[in-house]
Amino acid sequence: MKNKTGNYRWTICALLFFGTTINYLDRQVLSLLHPVLEKEFGWTNSDYGTITAVFQLAYAFFMLLAGRFVDKLGVKKGYTIALIIWSIGAMIHAYAIEIGTVAANVLGVIGISGISVSVLGFIVARLVLGMGESANFPAAIKATAEYFPKKERALATGIFNSGSNIGAILAPLTVPWLAYHLGWQSSFIVIGALGFVWLIFWLYYYDTPLKQKRLSTEELQYIAHDTVYDKISEPYPEIKVNWLKLLTFRQTWAFTAGKFFTDGIWWFFLFWLPSYLTGQFNLTTTQITLPLTILYTMTMAGSIGGGWFPIYFINKGYSSYDGRMKAMFIIALFPLVVLLIQPFGYLSFWVPVILIGIGASAHQAWSANVYSTISDMFPKAAVASVAGIGGMAGGISGALMSVFVGRIFDHYKAIGDPKMGYTIVFTICALSYLLAWGIMKLLVPKMKIVRLEE
């Protein structure tokens, strides 16, 4: 069935793209300022690992709640509230010392001490940021399920998910400049305030498809023609979503495994690459702008290309899930190039930049598809909740990765062999996707749609 009746759904995709761009801009500011803040406050790798782990744990815990929150309130209200919280959280990083002083006094009253004021302040700010940002993907995935037929969802997901790459590209182009000319505090305030600009457009343009006056009847029919449970002329059926029941389905665990074994890799690429380039190649904060820009530009191709890739197999007659899994296996092979970083990285810093770029591109291609497996197999009423469960697993994975990386880097630095720490971490990055794919395939060998009312 070909659509020649309108393209308003792509306007919604554009909104989700810019929302995700701002989401990643906000979370990326700290990693770019890490070398500056490390010198100013005397942080160790373990200190920084703890700060980033708190963000990821908050992100993980609240993503579980955010999925349910978005399913209950709806995408428009849920996303609005989340964005306000995360934008405030991004901006209060500028006042981390003041916040840390208050937190230290409170902890002192109850007999807890030994944590520096700067670390405490950034922990609180990251906690608020993680709480708000946790709703971005459950809301965006649910919006995609509402506005796109199954065949187009991975492509739409790949496009809006590429906003994470644009955010990662824009951050090194803006944050160092703001920090140099206006001070590091200004970077958090200016970038954090962008969310409120986006909110104006979101409130004006977004509504559910059945209430959307800008959406033609023909386009609405096209959106719903291949979707289980959907009806064109009346609201979607009421289906009660129970977390415990969701946990009884192999499909839930397949998605959760896909997130748990791979999200920590992306968090590592996002939060530790600036420190890797400055620490291993003695590049300054401004010198890493070009390599990071090129690296994250590469990931855009992975995100959008990965979203398109399963369409090739679906057009050949595969079901949406089976075609997606076939594409994901091929995608999972690309991170293996990360194994070449340590043997050949000594040639130039461009070697790891390009190889990590390929691995990070593969992650974004993987991410576009693993998110789409939810709407392949679950009704729309459960999409955000399942996304929250898997997202929580991914956040926990990221937190564990941050703590592990911080500790292992400090350990090998202390014994005079910092490269060994990177060898271990890069090996994990290379092999995790094949492991995740194998577990997903074992749990759900063939497409099977979940019917919650049964």
Structure characteristics:
single chain, Growth Hormone, Chain: A, mainly alpha, 454 residues, globular
> Structural class of the secondary structure composition?
mainly alpha
* Low-pLDDT ranges: 228-238
CATH fold-level name: Growth Hormone, Chain: A
**What integer value in Å does the Rg equal?**
21 Å
CATH level 1 name: Mainly Alpha
The string of secondary-structure elements, in order, is HHHHHHHHHHHHHHHHH
Extended strand count: 0
Percentage beta strand: under 5%
Write down the domain tally: 1
The CATH homologous superfamily name equals: MFS general substrate transporter like domains
Label the CATH architecture.
Up-down Bundle
Average pLDDT value? 86
Instruction: Give the helix proportion (percent range).
Output: over 70%
Overall form: globular
Query: For the report, how would you describe the main beta sheet?
Result: none
Amino- and carboxy-terminal Cα gap: 30 Å
